[in-house]
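[job 0412] stage=fold_complex status=start
inputs:
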Amino acid sequence: MSPSEQIIPHGHVLRYTLKERLTHWVAAGAYIYLLMTGLAFWSPWLFWVAVILGGAPLSRMLHPWAGLIFFAAVWNMYVMWAPQMKHTDVDKKWWKAVRYYSTNQDDKMPPAGRYNAGQKFLFWGFFWSAVALLASGVVLWFPERIPWNLRSLRYISVIVHPAAALFTIGLFLIHIYMGVFAERGAFGSVIRGDVSIAFAKRYHPGWYKEIVGDSSTPRK
Amino acid sequence: MSQEILRIQKISGHAGTVPGEDTQREYKVSKLIDTTTCIGCKACEVACMEWNDLPFGETVFNNTYQTMPETRWNYWNLILFNEHEREDGTLMWLMRKNQCMHCAEPGCLAACPADGAIVQYTNGIVDFQQANCIGCGYCITGCPFDIPKMNPKTNRVFKCTLCTDRVSEGLEPACIKSCPTGCLHFGSKDDMKFLAEGRAKQLRDHSNFPNAGVYDPPGVGGTGVIYVLHDATRPELYGGLPKDPRIPWTVKLWKGPLKWLGNVAMVGGLIGLFVHYLRFGPKDRKDEDIHPGGEKS
Ligand code: HEM
Ligand code: SF4
Ligand code: SF4
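[job 0412] stage=fold_complex status=done
writing structure:
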């Protein structure tokens, strides 16, 4: 990621390239549609959501296609980010100190790199859930094509699909909470691409060191 | 068996209780199929096509009588043939009229997410309402008898209606009317059960079928279609009739505990995060000026 690709305002550093941001929002848009239509079929009390989104048959028709878009975007994230999401020793320490993180005592946290251990967990959680959702979703897409003697595939999928979806909903809620409410500045990073130097230093000191170098003065 | 047929007893994907539930009771109806007197003439198939205006599909030939392998979205009633070799080496034709069983506890209905796409009338008939169907095919997964079939053009699911339209006018289903040997009967479940048990006893006592019995599987609460079989201990011989059909346990888990757990977790999660925000608030403080736009570093 070269900072020169984009114009960064004074006192800021680039966190997400345009490609990364686009991928994020394709995944997010598809996910929110999948979430709304999926929940409509999950509970009779939410069936009206599908009606509002153009009718339940349409939602049923488009949900799997949105799933394919979602999976493509997640796959793209995997290609872009998987090397940065490797579990490190710092991450072990991070998990041990996670209670300080969740009580806003960030000064007591080990220095995170571009991603802290929680963000890595979120990434891998979403990635493996997306794989499970795709596999079970394809079975749910064409139940009538599954031969009778392979019906256990259908029986497994009706559990795996909603269970994986529920797991991602948990991740999703925390993700939104952190990105929008708790860690102000994070939301802007995925819109405009940059974060303030203070943000980088505070939440991702390892990463900050990496991009500015140990010796140099912060890029102005 | 009057207009009361239109009173609903169970309904799929409905938020809330069944409208008008249990304000009036009715006899459960039932179809009795005596496989021991079926001659495989397929008159019932023709009657079903005629009454329900279904087209005849393409047939296959593989040296058996089974010229159509299974029911289709527009072919609801099919005789399944089995050339069964008995222990003494003699051959026996086993023929079974296959169609929706109208389960008392229908797996199709339990699985269906669409409001009112599947209903069970108070007389026990399970009926698909295509106008409300969204084409998800969950019913296919819920049914232990492989009955609901999807129309690939309209993405709507169809199956035997037990001639709801005829029954509501006090008539018997079309297939019953056509049977030349009288192996098909229609009436209240109690009467059909009585008739079937009598016939099974006759087979045991007088016809050297010691295992003869009635197929009315308790795993799905009993069915609105019951069979008399020469050998009730081996229903699989009759075109793969399941021995102990049940709603798949994963379907029950999915529509039962998983639903409740999931709902509690989602609502609990939302409340938890809200309370966390009230207690701890955002990580940065205004005075630290850490969010974008802040210049201080
Ligand atoms: C990755 C590719 C995906 C495919 C191919 C797929 C496909 C399907 C299909 C065919 C169904 C059956 C009914 C319907 O269409 O709504 C379904 C249900 C559902 N999907 Fe997906 N889906 C995918 C991803 C997702 C994601 C990311 C979510 C996240 C929220 C999700 C949540 C749900 C839920 C909650 C249901 C309803 C389950 C129930 O009825 O209990 N799906 N999916
Ligand atoms: S046989 Fe299948 S389609 Fe018919 S009522 Fe039972 S579960 Fe439903
Ligand atoms: S396909 Fe089956 S389960 Fe889905 S809405 Fe239609 S009747 Fe209900």
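[job 0412] summary: Residues 201 and 208 of chain A are 6 Å apart (CA to CA).
[job 0412] exit 0
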